[in-house]
Design brief:
By secondary structure, the chain is an alpha/beta fold. The protein contains ten helices and eleven strands. The protein has a single domain, classed as Metal-dependent hydrolases (TIM Barrel). Helix 7 links the parallel strand 7 and strand 8. This is Membrane dipeptidase.
Length: 316
């Protein structure tokens, strides 16, 4: 069964390796490096139809270097992911999803944290032109747009952040609520035409700031938003670094109970996590989750979780 995965951090790994800061200072190959959980071979083995690639910059990178870091990751997306792998096809519009051929894998650029452009909306418009199709305003820290889930003061969107959400609306770009503070979440819900939680789970089952509570979940579903479950064990089982596929399925069950059977998807967070669900260690293993879900849900419902729900709720 085909899969759409709305979050991975392969670009960061490629950048760190190229900069000589990781992986024994040796560059990685997107085609087959084992260090990449979302390398081409794994995506093909997992029957991934479309993979979203996040641009992510560590908070400790100085503000005057963050734009350069973002450009480096975008360059690696174009040169290493697309340029050396003809099977990878750049998704530049939501209509491109409908033209993928057998054997092709769509590649989507996303931004995790507005730190990359600071308060420079010209840079943001350049990101749209370069193909960024989903933007999360924060990682866990605060920035000029909003407070993140790890910011103690728990503030919401700034005027700049609200302007960014409006620009996302105007450009048919998702606004990603994963990583936002609770107040920022509610500010986004009021403004965003295209909300998505690209990689978040259920807070009632795992009380973690990165997960969504029942009220937030209902608001996402009411506002035509998508919630894509994340494969990171600490977001599945509280205070644990282990999880089973059945543990993750419980989060999908809960989302369905809240009315989201048509608005659930997968957002693995591969290449950004340090521990794994047993049987979901890399992109080649997506079908293990699919097969587990087929024991509980109809084939049509599982196709929805795997890819159809996303296609039906993408910006139009």
């Amino acid at each position: 069964m085909k899969v759409i995965d709305t979050h991975c951090d392969a670009l960061l790994k490629l950048q760190l390796a190229k900069r000589g800061e990781y992986f024994n200072a040796s560059p990685l190959s997107f085609s087959n490096s084992e260090e990449l959980e979302t390398n081409l071979g794994n995506l093909q083995a997992g029957n991934v139809m479309v993979q979203f690639f996040a641009i992510f910059i560590y908070p400790d990178v100085s503000s005057d270097e963050k734009w350069q870091h973002a450009l480096e990751q975008i360059d690696l997306f174009y040169t290493e992911v697309l340029g050396k792998n003809p099977a990878m096809k750049h998704m530049k519009s939501w209509q491109d999803f409908d033209s993928l051929k057998d054997g092709e894998i769509g590649a989507v650029l996303t931004l995790e944290g507005a730190d990359a452009f600071g308060n420079d909306l010209t840079k943001l418009r350049h990101l749209y032109r370069l193909g960024v199709m989903s933007i999360g305003l924060t990682w866990n820290n605060a920035n000029l747009c909003a407070d993140g889930a790890g910011e103690p003061r728990g503030g919401g969107l700034t005027l700049l952040g609200k302007e960014v959400v409006q620009l996302n609306n105007d450009n048919f770009v998702f606004t990603d609520v994963s990583h936002l503070s609770v107040k920022s979440f509610w500010d986004v819900i009021e403004l965003a035409k295209y909300p998505i939680a690209s990689h978040s789970n259920v807070r009632a089952l795992c009380d973690h700031p990165r997960n969504l509570d029942d009220e937030q979940i209902r608001a996402m579903f009411k506002n035509n938003g998508l919630i894509h479950v994340v494969y990171n064990p600490p977001f599945i089982n509280k205070d644990r670094r282990d999880a089973t596929i059945d543990d993750l399925v419980k989060h999908i069950d809960y989302l369905c109970e809240l009315g989201g059977v048509k608005q659930i998807g997968f957002g693995s967070d591969f290449d950004g996590i340090g521990c794994y669900v047993d049987g979901l260690e890399n992109a080649a293993k997506h079908q293990n989750l699919v097969n587990a879900l087929l024991k509980h849900y109809s084939e049509d419902e599982v196709k929805g979780f795997a890819y159809k729900n996303f296609l039906e709720h993408r910006p139009q």
